[in-house]
Fold:
Amino acid sequence: MEEQPLFSDLSEAERKALEELMPDEMGEIMSSGIKRRHFLKLFAVTGTSLLAANLLGIEQLMARSIPIEEQPPVLIENGINVSFQVNGSTQKLMVDSRMTLLDTLRERLGLTGSKKGCDHGQCGACTVIVDDKRVLSCLTLAATCEDKKVTTIEGLATGNELHPMQTSFIKHDGFQCGYCTPGQICSAVALMGEAKNGDASYVTANVREKKKAVELSNEEIRERMSGNICRCGAYPNIVSAIREVHGDKAVAQVWQFAEGTI
Amino acid sequence: MSETGKPISRIDGRMKVSGKATYAAEFNQPNMAYAFPVRASIAKGKIASINDDIIRKEAGVIAVISYKNAYKLKPLDMQAQMKAGAGFLGENLPPLQDNTVHYPGQFVAVIVAETYEQARAAAYKLQVKYIADKAAVDLKTELPKSTKPKMFMGEEAQVNEGKAAGPLAASAKKVDHTYSTPVEHHHPMEPHATVAVWEGTDKLTLYDATQGVGLTSAIAAYFFGLKQENVRVMAPFVGGGFGSKGLWLHTLLVAMAAKAANRPVKLALTRQMMQTNVGHRAATIQRVGVGTDAGGQLNVLRHHTNTYNNLTQFFEPSGKQTLVLYKARLREVTYNVAHLDRSTPTFMRAPGETPGTFALECAMDEMAYQLKMDPVEFRIKNHTTKDPVKGHDFSSEFLVDCYRTGAKRFGWASRSIEPRQKRQGKYLVGYGMATATYPGGRSAASVKVLMNNKGDVTVMTASIDIGTGTYTVLAQTAADALGIPVEKIDVKIGDSSLPPAPLAGGSQTTASIHPAALDACVLLRKELISMAIADPGSKLNGSKPDDIDFANGKLFVKGNKDKSDTYLDILNRAKRNEIEACATTLPVSGAGLTVPSALCTPSQTPAEQNSDIKQYAFHSFGAQFAEVWVDEDLGTIRVKRVTSVQDVGRIMNEKTARSQIIGGVIFGIGAALMEATEYDKRWGNPVTRTLADYHVPVHLDVPPIDVHFIGKPDPHISPIGARGIGEIGITGVSAAIANAVFNATGKRLRDLPLTPEKFFES
Structure:
């Protein structure tokens, strides 16, 4: 028998909502255990879903879709049991040994924010953050993710509040079609950590001299983001967006009409 | 203040940055199966055998579909298709209907299985045996057998054929060179994908990565023999298109697969299939002749294009800009089109102008140098204010302003006419420029606007936002036309059941749907006015309609803001939950590419403001300026900065408009320096199969790009005054870069892309 922790896949906010809405039932719920889909069902049938939605922030509630089935729909060949954390909640499932982390997120966990652009690790659209490092989820087999902590684009916001990188991408129009965007943003968020650690890049002047933290020039940002392709060509806007978050001060938006024409 | 033009952030931005924008492959269905196609490994011939019986026994396999057992689609019939609005099939080859192979990579079978992994594994195991014929795989070899098409998209294809040779030879100064451009692929970040869901045998829903929900619905309905209203196509978000997301065969294939499996089926193309199954820009070999008198006045322009096609009449129309730019006594624009057994060429961002401006604008630069004239001054000297072929005035044209403003902003004055004059360390520095142009198209469109008794407004049309900003600018137009904030407006697009709109291609969406959105809002306002005037409970009771103005969610009597009534009060007193209005706008120039069935009453816009192509020529113009640094030891070329000045009519949103031009310029940098699909000269298959071989610009390739808009509304295209903006940004860029390379090094590179080996060959 596998041991399943109570509230295994409920987020902190969801658990809190439950406590606030049903203080009397908490004891019983605690002892019987609850899964996220039960939780959502509960809120739907008790007519408290709107209240819950407000409490949790609609964004967060909608961000995580309800898995349609707990068990895989068909007999899986070479099935491998794997358990890992995705955006703070533990996921236990059996996957085809050939299944990538990307396809697991998209096809099994309903987390379609991570995108498949090339499936060969050449475009960066599938970038997610695994244990604080950016990883190409299309080149990562799900079976290798045992006990790892995966953060996808859906996990960056806190409730209704977007991650500063998400806000900055909107402000600077760091996307057009939006398909490379989740990968660009995950990459950019992890990039902040790399800069803090002083990781060197191709354009770092002296790689022998390990600094405490790297100052991200435009050149550094462009080099470090070159694994994330944007065919719409939002690159200059993406660099502005990252610079603003990195520098912690507002970067001017550049757009203007030719002089004297309006 | 007017919302239109303001640089507001995209209203769909929040969804896109939080992973909630849902693209075609993400519409997972209960009980859904997965399809994976099998592609031909020969260029031409017949399928001899398929081991499908063995593959059916593979784990998870539900169906193996090939010509042997595929659903019989309606056969091709161009007249019937055109009548049904189903003419624009990417390639005229309904899938799996016979055993003939027309190009490498053609779909020859499709596997349906329980999981993606199983479908893919089975597809790789399927053995298809062929009888191969000798295939035509190389443009240069096939050119002697090429033909001269009479028409291209309803226009004469051979203009003044044979007439330029004499005047060119007699010109005091002449340039006559061959320029070539490679095969390019669109490679939108989202690979094409479709989820097909049948409801019984006569209703089909397709979640499809498409640039036209109406187009896809019409074509699918035609080939499956369904009523168009029974084929619903949904595409709320599309991950880029650039011309590649018309209707290609996988969309029909997955609907066939879903029919066979009797389940919803998903098919997402791999990046490799994006090179063979969804079109490309054909290679061109162009010869351009420019003749002037001794003073630099143009006598003659000659532009001949050699290219190819397969399975459609489409060919790369790279002479288009040569029919529009510059004053010259005579111009000859002609084509030779060969047949290749290669996947089908199609529209790709600025079809024609992208390779065409490379050839023409490089030739113009070569002539300016021969004349020892500044290239900007040479162009201004030969500027035309009329369509040089048809003789009409341009509807609105500020090209000279583009040149002058661009030159000033870029710092063009410091450029030397002689090359090799500027250095930065080991790099040679050069400046180059070129003209940009693209037609200002417009099609018929219908838009419905609905207002509820909470004051929320929904704008609905079967248009698409492929990253272009359609959601956002539609909200801005409606906000202005109704006098309410953008936040109160919801935009519903990307659904074929909404009022018809043209496909998102040809830089025509804004020009087409905004006049209809404006009209629908005006109709809605009129209804509110009639309700208020007739209502004894309204302060406007008894007023004349013409005396009523609107602002901030209210109607009021002009000059007397106290005599007012809010939209909400008007609706609530009348006990109406909602009111709606629908408008169709039909430009004088015709319905264009729109599905012809207009839903609503067409508005009566005077011809003068309604795209009358018999009165005016509609074109956008611009000027591109580039600085390059060339490393002569390595042959590498880096673009250091670009200035792009654009005359595209009214700007609907400064932020998204600027992004579109930046994106176009970056596409142009890709075309200039790196993009090319190479084919095996023996077998005809693409050898650059992935994004590791087909290079597109990445962050580090992209310099600062300075974008300026002239911003003058076009008074004749529509009452809105906006022309399209999606394509013009790419035009002229590769020429500006090549011209800058000459200015830096004295070397003329006439074969794109400008990779190091070509630098050393020249």
